[in-house]
From TrEMBL:
Domain of life: Bacteria
Species for this entry: Actinocorallia aurantiaca
Protein's name according to its UniProt entry: Ferredoxin
Length: 80
């Protein structure tokens, strides 16, 4: 069986961003206004006060940071 490469990241790579609250570095990609992909770095997972209690929860502070970065154009929306 052949694994087909995912070319979406070649066309629109993930972008670095730091959380406004804890300064944790993550990579984000906004495929659309409704869909966001996040890659957490080990440092961000350690620094995030919201993930210390539950690693599987979404951090509301990072969500706000991503929304603001998208609105001001720092993070680009792929499907506009």
């Amino acid at each position: 069986m052949t694994i087909r490469p995912d070319n979406r990241l070649a066309d629109a790579p993930m972008q670095p961003l730091r959380c406004q609250r804890c300064d944790g570095p993550v990579l984000v990609r906004k495929s659309s206004w409704e869909q966001t992909s996040i890659q957490w770095s080990e440092q961000a997972m350690e620094d995030c006060p919201n993930l210390r209690t539950d690693r599987y929860r979404t951090c509301p502070d990072l969500r706000i940071t991503i929304q603001q970065a998208t609105l001001n154009g720092t993070v680009k929306v792929v499907d506009e």
